[in-house]
Each structure stands twice: as C-alpha cells, then as structure tokens.
C-alpha cells in the first residue's frame, strides 16, 4: 500500500518534472545564449495547448493535432523573434521585462478573442486512455506514462543534438562566449532565430501534453512560467543538463511536499486548516529549494556564467 | 545654461501638482465622483512605484518582489481591523486597532523588518539571481498569506471601515484623496532631497560601479541594504493606504504579476528620475481604465503599446516630457 | 506643452465614459458572475438564463425597462470586491445578482449591505449569510450551500455505506458542503481532503484515495474541477471499482458534456432537474435549448427564478424602487411560479424547498442530462436559521 502510493507519487513528480524540463530547456537556451529575459515563454505553452485542441478536433486525432501544433508554434515563435525579440538583444534586462510583459498581455487577450474565455477540455487519444499495471497492484494511467516517455525521449534527443551535431556545437559556443562565436563566423542572427523557434516548439509540446491533464485556458502559461524560471536558475542558466536535473528535482520536491505535508499536519490540525496550511507550505517548498541551491552553488547546479 | 533644464523641471513639477490638486473638484463637476476613489488608488500605486524606483533607479537593484511589501502593509491594517471586528485579542495580549496613527506606522515597521530580512539575504547576490531571489521571497509570502485561514486565506480580509485618523473622515473619497496626495508629495520631496544628498550620491555611485565605490572605502552592502529597507517601509505605507482604499486585503496583492506591474510603471515612467515612476503609475492605470471602457479586449492594445515603448523611448515618459535636454 | 496635451488626452478618455443614473421607468441590474476560468460554465449559464428570463418578460422586470450590466469577476475575491464597488457607486444598480462562488459572496456582501442594495443570489448561499451574518438585503433564490450535500449524506447513510472518502475544494462552500454531508452520514470518514480551488491535476489525490481503500467516494467539484476529476478518475481505473457520489453541483448539465460517458450512471442530489413536470419548467427548458443550443443546468434554473423573483417584487411595489422596506416585503412574499414547483422563503431569506435524487443518463439524442429518480427531503430549510436574528 505504501509502496504503491510512493511509486505513484514518484511517477507524478517525474511527470511534472518532465513538463517543466521541456519548458526550461527552451528558456535556458534563450536566457543563456541570447541573454534575454523572456517572460512570454508561457504564452507559447498556452498556444501549443490551444492549437493542439483545435487542430486535434479538426482532424479528429489528438496526435495529429499535437504534431501539427508544434511546428506551427515554432514558426509563430520565429516570427515573434524576428519582429520583436531581435531588437531586445542589445537592451538591458528591464526593457526586456517590459516588452515581454506586453507580449503576455497581447497573447492572452488574442487567445481570448479567438477561442473565448471558457476553458477547453482536451482528452488524450482513446488508445492511451486506460491504465497500466506496472507491478502487481500498482496502476498508473497510460497517458501519463506516455507523457513521461515522450519527455525523456526528447531530453535524450536534445542531449544528442547538443553534443553530436554542428548546430549543437554552435549553440554551446554561443552559450559560452557569444562575441567570440560571432567573430569566428557563426551566423549569430540565424542561430538565435533557430534557438527561439526550438524553445517555443518545446514549450508547445509541453502545453499540448499538459492540456490533457489540466485544461486549456487563457493564462495557463503564467503559473508554469514562474516554476520554469525557478528550474532554470536552480539548474544553471544556459545548461540543458541543469534544466533536466533542476526540473526533476523541482517536480519531485513539489509533488512529495504536496502529498506528505497534509498527512503530517492532519495529526495536529483539523482537516480544512491542515490542508490549507499544507498547501501553502508545499507551494513554498520549491522556492526554499532554490534559495538553498543558490546558497550552496551561487550560479546554479551546472551554471557556468552569469 | 545650467538653470534652463532645472527651471523646466521645476515648472513641470508645479504644473503636475496643480493638476493633481484640481482632480476632485473637476471630477465632481463632470459628475464622475466615483473616479475620485480611482484617483486615490492611482496615487497609492504611484507611491509604491516611487519606492521601487529608490532601489531600482537609484540603487540599481531590480526587485521582482516589491509587491510583498505592499501586501504586508495591507495585511497589517487588515489584521488590526479584523481583530476589532472579531473582538479577539492578538498574541501577546494586544488588541486589534483601526487607529491610523498606530497601524500605519506599524505597517511601515513590519515591511521594513521584512525588507531587512529579505535584503540581508538577497543582496549577497547580483544580477538575475537577485531578481529571482526577491521573486522567491515574494512568492513565499504570497503562499504563506494564502495559508492564513483565520485571516481568510486566499479569500482575504474584508475591512468593515477605514482607519481612523485624528478626526478626519477617511471614508469620504475627497478627504482620502488629498491625504494620499499629501503623503505622496511629502515622500517624493524627501526622496528627491535624499537623491541629491550624500547618501543618494553614494547609492548612485554603487549603481554605476560598485567595485569602484568599494575601492574608495564605502560599505556598499550597508548602503544598499539601507535603501532597500527604506524602500520597503514606503511600500508598506502604500499597502496600508491600499487596504483602506479597497477595504480589502488579500494575497493577490503580493502576486508576482503585481510586482511585474510595479516594474512596468517604473520603466514606463523613467527609471531613476523618481518623478517618472509617479507618472508611469498614473499613465498605466489611467490607460488601463480608459481602454477598458472602450473595449473589453483592451489588453490586446495595451500589450503592443508596452512593447513599442520598451523598444523606443529610452528614458520613459518623464524623459519625453522634459525633452531631450537636461539630466534626469 | 507636452504635459498639458497629455493630460487633455487622458481627461478626454475619462470623460468619454459617462454613465447616467437610471431614468425613471428603468431598473438597473448588476450581473456580477464568473465568465472566465474553470468556473465559467456556471457563470455563463447564470448569465444566459437571467437574460432569457428578461427577454421572455419583454425586456423588462416588473414593468420597468431592464438594463443588465455584466461584469466578469474572474473568480477572484479582489476583482469581485472592486467590481461590486463599481456597480454600486458608479453604475448605481438597483439589484445585484450572479455571484457563483461563496468566497466572493462573503467578500462583496458587506458592500451591498452598506449600500442597501438588494442582492438576489442565483447560486452562492454560504452558511454565514444564513446564520450569524444574515442581513435583510440578501435573498437566495437558489438553496443553502449545505442542502444538496445533506441530501446525499442522507442517501449514502440509508444505503449502508460505512467508509466514505470525502473531497472538496478548500473554500467556504467546500467546507459547508462536507459539513452538510457529515450532518446526515454517520459512518466512518475514510478521508476528508480539501484541495486547492481550481486545482486541475488530481493525480496525487487519486493515488492517496486508492491507498485509503474506501467503500464509496463523495466529491464536490463544480465546473472545470469536476470535469478534470471525473476524467482522471476514469483514467486511473477507478470507475466501476468504487461508487462515486456527488451533489448536483459536480454533475450538472454545464459540464456533463465535457465529462462524457465517464459520468453516466452516477447519482447526485439537487432541488431541480430538466425533466421536472410543471408548465414553467417545460417552457424554460425548451426556450433555453432553443436560444443557446444546450440544456440548462441547475445554475441556469436558479438564475431564471432569480429574475422572476425580482420581476414579481417590482410588480408588487408598483415600480417604486426607492421604498426599500416595501421591496423587502415583496421579495419575501416570493409571489412567482418557480421552475422547481414549490418555492417559499424562510425567515432568514433562504428557500424552503424539496430535494431529490438524480441520475446522469445519456438520452436518445446523445445528450447527457440528469433524471429525477426519488425524493429525499420535503420542505427542507437549512441548519443555520436558528442563528439568524432577523
């Protein structure tokens, strides 16, 4: 019984972690290579969810919807980069905060105008709607396992790309010394556009998958955005490996705090009070984690530069 | 030659003051008495933005968690009022209170202490890590406030009456407006003085080049911390006023979106000029309100406006008003 | 100079938005409800049904031309509070209605009370306003929060369940709800879990639930929370293994379509269902479906009744909106035909009505709806009327 609970919660934590990784990987690249504070990253997560829902309904296939939504959002991301983000590279962080804050407003309202204010409920494909018996007596929804698997596969592919391809080499060069990389002939402008598109595509994947577990609604990007920033800082700005480790840490800490704290507090407080104190304490657990990590490693776990 | 920009600046300030004084009678004449309450809210947010400019513009510390001080100030007033309504005593046998002369300074004290604690830890980092840690602390306070079930938790505290201030009827919108205006002008004048004082000079020096200031022998950490605490106290006062204006205090006041809004007001108005953020607050709130009257989709207009502003005007509204000449 | 021009522009913006007093022969209604986020399906039903009622009355209430000012409270107490202040002071509404969630109701009622504006609730009916904080300016056209839960507790107890797991969102109505259930259920509580309002992912809670191994589960999750819970309940393989019960709020027509087959067969309790056999209900359901292309929910029925109640009260006072005392008496008389059949007010301004068991079914047209199965309570008031000093 306890083992089952533990394994199930552990898997839930990993699933949250994987979603955060997909978001954090894109953000850490943008932050690390382009040195841009990109607050509207969550908006692409939201767009990914909405487009998956709409295209999935159109072609009556969730998977097709997801597969089409990702490149579409990446394309939108590249257009946004070309129009707005590009002009922010030379500016200081505050102008970037102001501009991307404005972008969040714009995207939220645009989505509300196109799709309406009511949330959309996205269902996973019928083929994955059942449960899997992982070990005797331990059940877990198929779809969540699929999310976990997809995320891990993408992580592996990203790692491969960064380490083994030319593009990855250029990304690593740009992350460690942008000016030098440019001086050595890397097409920085083109590289940046690709990085941005890659990041937003990953965010769309995260949104499209998360939309089945949560629901698709305006402003859904904001709540995950803050956690994503925390993950990026914990992992170290610019490091994909840091994003992975940080994301899994955050996912596990958050889920385990949420499950264990109520149980711990029930023994001393009445149910409703115990639950609200537990909820607020477990929400702070991630930030406490970040402060502890920064106290130990001021640049994050795998951070190389400021 | 050095007098011309200074004269222009002074004239602008005087004109703004006259306009601010004229707001309640003009609104009443237009039959828009409701908006006097809104105008008071604008002044309160301007005070909060001003406090942020002290650390950001003068001190170079970008705090993404200033809404926490706003919320703390509001909660002090809220909790004091709650205990009056409920009749139950506070810890240490204290009683609830709605006396402004007690709870407002207390709000400033609590915010100042919080700023001391947060600043002491956060100021050991710089750059984006400083931003993230101030954000983290604000988030923690936000969630902790939500956990305070006795004081309403996420649903907040409803204040049944405003603070009592020595016989003034704060529930009268016009009286309240002039009080807020008076406080704002006083704080602004004090901070302008501070900016050109020795403390302000050192602070600006630290903003421009901390290493050099340290080499010159200044205890830069202490100066930054002092500015942070002062800023927290002013923001706490704004919070106390805000609780009175909305007759409500809730964790939503401490959200990161609120902190972001304050940041936007400062940058919009012109960081470092102190007067600029006041204008930034006015502009943002009036724009939001008037656009909302025109269309419910006002955000789709305001968003790109903010983007354009970020991409163009380097010195914000105040820079635009003063013209290209003159120092901030 | 630039300052002058910029001020003039801003002043122009403000002056462009003038709102007049209601002219004589007119009545202004403030419709403050949740139109966005997971709780929006309830607010949209309330708004649509209220508008439908006014339309059926020829665009007027009690003979006065009705202007409905619609505001979205976004399910946030601070937004609701500001919106209430605005409706009272700027728009100067004569009546207010629409709030769905009890935490917002408790945050805003003091403002309505102070302004002596009558608030007719189409949903939120917290225990505080039924008892200790009762006020003459609050009337509930819906129920008292505990009622539907009390009815279910009664049923579950009668059926012999001994180990029930309870879940609700952590806000006043959630607490009222589980209290109401426990008032009539005497068995063991296997677990009492309060989740965060608008939480959408229940994986962790479902795992704990499975570990507790109850013989039945009772959940109160309105709107989007319910949709997500029921879908994840099915995905976790729990449907069919453990019986699931809820109040009518969890299984109401505004969300049944999104839940789909996962909800079919579940039992719930309410004071209304679409198949109630009286002439005004038949007309209401038919009109609603014709106008909006979907079946009305219990929330819609409450809002429709709220409009009819206001109409009857204005008519009774001959359109004199300033005579607050007379309006209050007229509202108390509840002289209108409710879509529920019987309707009268208790002395604390909360209804006395019948509650019954409903089952979720899928009809021949493929629509998901509730069917009335069996009566549970007759002429039920509420548990808090004794605490009210009115």
Automatic annotation (TrEMBL), chain C:
Pfam family membership, one: Peripla_BP_6
InterPro entries tied to this protein: BCAA_transport (IPR051010), Leu-bd (IPR028081), Peripla_BP_I (IPR028082)
Domain of life: Bacteria
GO biological-process terms attached to the record: amino acid transport
This protein's record includes keyword Signal: yes
CDD domains in the record: PBP1_Nba-like (cd06359)
Residues of the Leucine-binding protein domain: 26-363
Signal peptide: 1-22
Gene3D superfamilies tied to this protein: 3.40.50.2300
Record flagged with keyword Transport: yes
SUPFAM superfamilies: Periplasmic binding protein-like I
Alphabetical UniProt keywords: Amino-acid transport, Signal, Transport
Entry's family note: Belongs to the leucine-binding protein family.
Name of the protein in its database record: Leucine-binding protein domain-containing protein
């Amino acid at each position: 019984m306890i083992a089952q609970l533990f394994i199930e919660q552990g898997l839930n934590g990993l699933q949250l972690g994987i979603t955060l990784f997909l978001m954090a990987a894109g953000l850490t690249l943008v932050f690390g290579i382009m040195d841009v504070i990109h607050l509207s990253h969550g908006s692409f997560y939201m767009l990914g969810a909405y487009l998956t829902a709409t295209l999935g309904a159109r072609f009556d296939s969730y998977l097709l919807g997801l597969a089409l939504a990702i490149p579409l959002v990446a394309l939108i991301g590249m257009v946004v980069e070309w129009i707005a983000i590009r002009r922010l590279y030379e500016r200081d962080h505050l102008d970037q905060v102001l501009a991307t804050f404005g972008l969040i407003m714009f995207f939220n309202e645009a989505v509300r105008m196109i799709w309406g204010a009511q949330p959309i409920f996205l269902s996973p494909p019928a083929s994955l709607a059942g449960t899997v018996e992982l070990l005797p007596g331990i059940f877990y929804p198929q779809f969540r396992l699929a999310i976990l698997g997809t995320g891990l596969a993408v992580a592996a592919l990203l790692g491969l790309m960064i380490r083994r391809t030319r593009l990855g080499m250029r990304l690593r060069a740009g992350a460690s010394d942008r000016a030098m990389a440019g001086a050595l002939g890397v097409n920085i402008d083109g590289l940046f556009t690709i990085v941005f598109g890659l990041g937003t595509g990953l965010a769309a994947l995260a949104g499209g998958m998360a939309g089945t577990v949560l629901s698709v609604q305006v402003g859904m990007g904001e709540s995950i955005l803050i956690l994503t920033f925390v993950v990026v800082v914990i992992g170290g700005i610019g490091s994909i490996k840091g994003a992975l480790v940080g994301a899994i840490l955050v996912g596990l800490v958050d889920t385990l705090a949420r499950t264990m704290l109520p149980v711990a507090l029930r023994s001393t407080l009445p149910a409703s009070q115990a639950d609200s104190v537990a909820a607020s304490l477990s929400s702070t657990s991630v930030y406490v984690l970040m402060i502890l990590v920064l106290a130990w490693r001021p640049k994050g776990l795998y951070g190389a530069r400021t | 030659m050095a007098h011309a920009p200074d004269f222009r600046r002074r004239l602008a300030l005087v004109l703004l003051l006259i306009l601010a004084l004229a707001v309640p009678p003009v609104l009443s004449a237009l039959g828009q008495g409701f908006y006097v309450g809104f105008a008071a809210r604008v002044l309160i947010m301007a005070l909060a933005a001003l406090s942020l400019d002290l650390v950001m513009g003068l001190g170079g510390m970008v705090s993404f968690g200033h809404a926490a001080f706003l919320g703390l100030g509001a909660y002090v007033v809220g909790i004091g009022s709650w205990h009056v309504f409920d009749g139950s005593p506070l810890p240490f046998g204290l009683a609830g209170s709605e006396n402004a002369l007690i709870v407002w300074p207390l709000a400033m004290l609590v915010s100042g202490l919080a700023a001391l604690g947060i600043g002491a830890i956060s100021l050991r980092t710089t750059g984006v890590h400083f931003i993230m840690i101030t954000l983290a602390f604000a988030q923690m306070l936000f969630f902790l406030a939500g956990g305070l079930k006795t004081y309403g938790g996420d649903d907040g505290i409803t204040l049944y009456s405003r603070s009592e201030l020595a016989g003034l009827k704060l529930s009268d919108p016009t009286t309240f407006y002039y009080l807020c205006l008076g406080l704002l002008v006083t704080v602004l004048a004090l901070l302008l003085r501070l900016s050109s004082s020795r403390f302000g000079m050192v602070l600006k020096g630290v903003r421009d080049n901390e290493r050099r200031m340290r080499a010159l022998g200044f205890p830069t950490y202490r100066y930054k911390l002092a500015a942070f605490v002062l800023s927290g106290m002013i923001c706490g006062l704004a919070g106390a006023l805000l609780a009175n204006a909305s007759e409500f205090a809730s964790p939503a006041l401490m959200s990161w979106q609120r902190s972001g809004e304050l940041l936007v007001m400062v940058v919009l108005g012109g960081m470092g000029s102190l007067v600029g953020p006041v204008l930034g607050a006015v502009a943002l709130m009036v724009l939001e309100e008037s656009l909302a009257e025109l269309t419910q989709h006002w955000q789709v207009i305001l968003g790109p406006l903010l983007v354009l502003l970020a991409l163009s005007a380097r010195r914000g509204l105040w820079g635009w008003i003063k013209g290209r000449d003159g120092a901030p | 100079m630039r300052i002058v021009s910029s001020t003039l522009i801003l002043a122009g913006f403000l002056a462009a938005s003038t709102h007049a007093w209601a002219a004589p022969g007119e009545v202004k209604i403030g419709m403050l409800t949740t139109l966005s986020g997971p709780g929006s399906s309830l607010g949209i039903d309330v708004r649509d049904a209220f508008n439908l009622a006014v339309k059926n009355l020829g665009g007027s209430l009690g003979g006065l031309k009705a202007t409905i000012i619609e505001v979205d409270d976004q399910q946030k107490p601070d937004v609701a509070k500001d919106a209430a202040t605005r409706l009272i002071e700027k728009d100067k509404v004569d009546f207010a209605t629409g709030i769905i969630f009890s935490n917002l109701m408790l945050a805003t009622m003091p403002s309505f009370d102070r302004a002596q504006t009558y608030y007719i609730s189409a949903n939120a009916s917290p225990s505080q306003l039924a008892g200790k904080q009762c006020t003459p300016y609050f009337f509930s056209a819906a129920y008292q929060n505990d009622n539907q839960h009390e009815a279910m507790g009664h049923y579950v107890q009668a059926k012999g369940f001994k180990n029930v797991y309870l879940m609700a969102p952590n806000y006043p109505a959630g607490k009222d709800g589980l209290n109401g259930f426990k008032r009539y259920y005497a068995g063991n509580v296997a677990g009492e879990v309060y989740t965060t309002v608008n939480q959408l992912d229940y994986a962790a809670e479902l795992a704990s639930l499975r570990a507790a191994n109850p013989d039945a589960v009772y959940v109160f999750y309105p709107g989007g929370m319910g949709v997500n819970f029921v879908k994840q309940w099915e995905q976790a393989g729990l449907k069919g293994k453990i019986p699931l019960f809820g109040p009518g709020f969890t299984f109401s027509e505004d969300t049944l379509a999104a839940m789909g087959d996962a909800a079919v067969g579940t039992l719930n309790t309410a004071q209304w269902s679409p198949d109630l056999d009286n002439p005004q209900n038949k007309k209401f359901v038919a009109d609603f479906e014709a106008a909006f292309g979907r079946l009305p929910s219990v929330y819609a029925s409450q809002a429709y009744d709220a409009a009819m109640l206001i109409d009857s009260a204005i008519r009774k006072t001959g359109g004199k909106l300033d005579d607050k005392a007379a309006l209050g008496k007229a509202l108390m008389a509840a002289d209108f035909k409710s879509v529920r059949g019987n309707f009268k007010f208790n002395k604390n301004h909360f209804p006395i009505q019948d509650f019954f068991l409903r089952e979720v079914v899928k009809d021949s047209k493929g629509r998901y709806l509730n069917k009335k199965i069996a009566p549970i309570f007759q002429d039920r008031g509420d548990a808090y009327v004794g605490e009210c000093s009115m």
